[in-house]
Amino acid sequence: MKDVQYFIKQIHQFAGMKLYGTMGLMGLMSLIEGAALLMIIPLLYFIGVLDMSMDIRQIQFLFEWIQQIPENYRLLFILTFYVFVVLVVQWLKKYTQLRHASIQYGFLHKVRTTLHEKILIADWGFHLQKKSSDIVHILLTETGKISSGTNAVLQLFSQALFTIIQIGIAFWLSPGITLFVLGAGVILMFFSKKFVRRSIKLGQRNFELGEQYMAGLNDNAAGIKEIKVNGLEDRKQEWYDNHTQAINNEQMAFLRLRSSSYFRYKVTSAVLIALFIFGALQFFQAQAAQLLLIVLIFSRLWPRVTTIQNAMEQIGAFMPAFYRVRKIEKEADANAENKLIASVLSPKSLIELRDVSFSYDSRTDVKALSHVSAEFPIKQTTAIVGKSGAGKSTLIDLLMGLHRPNAGMIVVDGEEKSSDYLLSLRPQMSYVSQDPHIFQGTIRNNLSLVKTEVTDFEMWEALRFAAADEFVQKLPDGLDTELGDRGVRLSGGERQRLVLARAILRQTPVLILDEATSALDSDNEQKIQQALENMRGRMTVIVIAHRLSTIRHADQVLVLEGGRVIQQGGYQTLAREQNGAFHELLQKQQV
Ligand SMILES: Nc1ncnc2c1ncn2[C@@H]1O[C@H](COP(=O)(O)OP(=O)(O)OP(=O)(O)O)[C@@H](O)[C@H]1O
């Protein structure tokens, strides 16, 4: 319930007076509808169903009022008045519906943008823990439910307002009948609590199925090649079939629940009205006018009870979404990256890690980096080498401020810094990962993403640096070639070169390459090596490489093993250390 309250407060903050205005209009509408209800009585009187001798003191004034009108115009007046009331009510309904929708969609937009921003700002640890499909599912589906759920809560409030007004009118007409209807409604709602509980359960199931569906679809789309080459089509189709069937079953179960609840309320209404009329006639010798009142009050009040019950079931079904969205929002908040320090000066001579340790899981003793001390001289090239799983990527992620060290110190130009410093330094770093990502759109879109005011000349320069100019020139639309989903229209090597060009275009003082040329042929790799060589002394380059032939030009080499730096020094010096790990690595690769 706390989560629902949170979003109600949010919508209150978002819509402010507009919200009260809409709810006020709802009240006005119910008032007019109530008045329209009273209109039926003079109409019935006029057409002779009722006569003046009846004991209906409360509405006596309606008859007197009618008698003021000349007899020839009475019917015309009443019918015109009736049409006018319907017109006003329907116009108000339309207007309030639109206002409601504008609040609902506006709020959905706010919930989505706020959550999206929080997720973007959340640190790397948060993203490592979350499945990307779960995030997509929450942003796509669950936020929609929040908006509908908040709307259902507001509807419930308005219904309550509506109901209070209607109860007021009904009470004025006949307190006894009103109390009876209300009493019956409250009792029935009490015995219908299980419907709300089951709605919550089904909502939870709906969430889980949705999450699994999104994860499965993502997985299938990303792994379509694996599916085809491993002949997994039947298995995947079977999964899809079963899963969509489970979603159908859940939706049918919800529909069954709603219709059972509806059925129960309708039947109870009929039974109650029959009992009441029977009792009124048998024991109180009620007049036709009083019977009419019974029917009128029932027909006005009972649907309110049904609507409130319906809204509660709906809210119940949305409840898990409130919880999930709020949960991810809280997690993202708790893991928000600190604001970047506005003007961090570039390091002048040295970035140094002293005795740094880092573990992915604080619950275990397993350390990805253990007491690492390493120096990264500015405007020099540092190569990081080591076996798979040695901790090379983790070390780089730490340097980019993606991970915070659990222990140790960061020293820049001899000055101790907090780990936030690296975070602030991140805008000065460009990075090409092992598995570079191409965003949707054209080559131009991908390049201009990192530098908005960029000329074609600058783009071609960067492409040339990354040895990507030739293949881009051969593409049908050059820079404006659409790259498709994740750049699937490019080869692995072309993707790497394009992402390298994107990194170069940022013109940052630090360039970090994590196996960034692993998919290249030796020709293109050499071109890039040459380009990097040309930048020597102008840029700080940190490069992870498995192919040791590519790091000959490095000013220094760090050798990692089991999360520790086991050697650090110049390429040639380390190569000469006969019993050293680097020498062994070189020998294995016959470099
Ligand atoms: N997200 C993660 N969660 C938990 N453990 C991780 C995570 N990423 C890496 N590790 C672990 O941390 C250790 C170091 O991994 P890292 O990716 O830094 O190695 P690496 O030297 O870059 O390997 P490779 O050359 O294969 O890329 C490994 O034992 C790995 O299993």
TrEMBL record:
Upper lineage: Bacteria, Bacillati, Bacillota, Bacilli, Bacillales
Regions that span the bilayer: 20-47, 73-92, 179-196, 262-281
InterPro entries, A to Z: AAA+_ATPase (IPR003593), ABC1_TM_dom (IPR011527), ABC1_TM_sf (IPR036640), ABC_transporter-like_ATP-bd (IPR003439), ABC_transporter-like_CS (IPR017871), P-loop_NTPase (IPR027417), Type_1_exporter (IPR039421)
Keywords: ATP-binding, Membrane, Nucleotide-binding, Transmembrane, Transmembrane helix, Transport
Pfam families in alphabetical order: ABC_membrane, ABC_tran
PANTHER family: ATP-BINDING CASSETTE SUB-FAMILY B (PTHR24221), ATP-BINDING CASSETTE SUB-FAMILY B MEMBER 6 (PTHR24221:SF654)
UniProt-recorded name of the protein: ABC transporter ATP-binding protein
GO MF annotation terms: ABC-type transporter activity; ATP binding; ATP hydrolysis activity; ATPase-coupled lipid transmembrane transporter activity
Residue ranges the record marks as coiled coil: none
Signal peptide as annotated in the record: none
Location of this chain's protein in the cell: Cell membrane
The keyword Cytoplasm is annotated on this UniProt entry: no
Domain ABC transmembrane type-1, residue spans: 34-317
Chief location: membrane
Topology term for the membrane: Multi-pass membrane protein
UniProt KW Electron transport keyword: no
Annotated Gene Ontology cellular component terms: cytoplasm; plasma membrane
Residue stretches making up the ABC transporter domain: 351-587
